[in-house]
Amino acid sequence: MLYHLFTPLADTFTPFNVFRYITFRTAWGMMTALVIGYLVYPPFIAWMQRRRMEQAIRDDGPEAHLETKVGTPTMGGLPMIVSITLAVLLWCRLDQPEVWMALTILVGYGLIGFVDDWRKVARHSSAGLSGRWKLTWQAAIGLVVLGWGYLSGQIEPSLALPFLKGATVHFDVLWAGAPGWLGWVYVGVAVFILLGASNAVNLTDGLDGLAIGPIMTTAVTYGLLAWVAGNHVWADYLQIPYVEGAGELTVVAMAILGAGLGFLWYNAFPALIFMGDVGSLSLGGTLGALAVLTKHEILLVVVGGVFVLEALSVIVQVVSFKTTGKRVFAMAPIHHHYEKRGWAEPKIIVRFWIISLILALVALTTLKLR
Questions:
Q1: 217 HSE (CA, 13 A, CB side)
Q2: Residue 365: is it exposed, middle or buried by C-beta count within 10 angstroms (0-12/13-18/19+)?
Q3: Closest CA to 234 of 215, 220, 250
């Protein structure tokens, strides 16, 4: 909004030129989200405590959680969604469709998570929306948003392969007999990425501050990727797909960083508030959207390797138990396995953060290995 207000006045007042620069708006977008979150959380936490909007602790989880985490408010993702949305509306160019697609995923998936959290709180139970309904609504929102992006030409039906120079799979020309139809196969793949990212982040959100660390490193990584993908010169130099308008997603990504830092101030061990599904589903879905919109979909497996590890540990555990009757891990997701092995919660959290940071650096090196 500020871009549209002040850039037309730059000819008469030169300092307004700064609003043309993505770097300037990115920095202030991050700070805006951080300040809003930092200021909103204390009254929000107090209000949630008065209303006894507490996280229901699962009986089949680690025993220590029944003692240390009972009574902690949930739905901490709500202020994050608000702060990110306000920061994006203030500092982004609102004439870029990519911005609205990312925001729609953020708010839409956040609404699904809110309903899930509300049911848990209202029933004082760890059972919220069924997995089937969550996946159905997530897929529906993703299909509408990404389907519109494909039909409007904002999303190219192609997958860039990391580590390989100029290697791109174009779905619309794989089979000359039905190019248009195969474009929708890509949309299906992209929706799967949103669902995978959203639910993998949700699985990771099991310890104080565990999920928000990798969320922030992933957001920063995709902020950098969005900036270079939206810059024709840098995209050509680095041999990555150029995506017109992708640079504005840098503001979105760094707003996630700012909101995450504001949240972490109160979520660091021992947490004063939990993220809840409203936060994990919305932020995970938005990270997936950033991967799709910047045309670095496959790289999300590397950048978000911690989320992939958490999701795989659950899949392996379930498959192993159903086929052999034996468990591979003491408990899944894998962060609970380490709790069962006697690791202190802060040690698990920090080590997962370190792994996430290393994976982010590895992902960025692919830009020069093409």
A1: 27
A2: exposed
A3: 250
CB 321 within 8 A of CB 327: yes
CA atoms within 13 A on the CB side of 277: 25
If DSSP codes are grouped into helix, strand and coil, which group holds residue 97?
helix
Query: How does residue 71 score in pLDDT terms, banded at 50, 70 and 90?
Result: confident
Asked if 189 and 300 count as a contact pair (C-beta separation under 8 A), the reply is: no
DSSP bridge pairs for 169: 159
**DSSP line for 292-321:** HHTT--TTHHHHTHHHHHHHHHHHHHHHHH
> Which of 289, 211, 288, 258 has the alpha carbon at shortest distance from 82?
258
Across the chain, where does the E strand assignment appear?
A: 158-160, 168-170
- What does the DSSP assignment read for 148-164? HHHHTTSS-SEEEPTTS
- Give me the residue label for tokens 């920061």: 87
Which pTM value belongs to this model?
Answer: 0.94
- The model's pLDDT over 152-203, given as tens digits with 9 standing for 90+, comes to 989 988 888 877 766 777 776 655 454 557 788 899 999 999 999 999 999 9
What secondary structure letter does DSSP report for 147? H
pLDDT in tens, 106-163: 999 999 999 999 998 888 777 778 889 999 999 999 999 999 999 998 998 888 887 7
Start-to-end C-alpha separation, the chain: 37
**For residue 220, what are its two tokens?**
């920063």
pLDDT reading at 66 higher than 50: no
